[in-house]
Design goal:
The chain has 43 residues and is an all-beta fold. 0% of the residues lie in helices and 14% in strands. The protein has strands at 14-16, 22-24.
């Protein structure tokens, strides 16, 4: 995956939410703030 740079449009992607339903970043288009949390898990 290419490195993301500051002040650029985020790449298009979707991931499953905690219920397993797909959520796309474009679902939040027009919102002021979006917080993404990527948990690595605990091993």
């Amino acid at each position: 995956m290419p490195r993301v740079t500051l002040d650029k449009t985020a790449p298009v992607f979707s991931l499953p939410d905690f219920k397993g339903q797909p959520v796309s970043l474009s679902d939040f288009k027009g919102k002021f703030n979006v917080l993404l949390v990527f948990n690595r898990g605990f091993t």
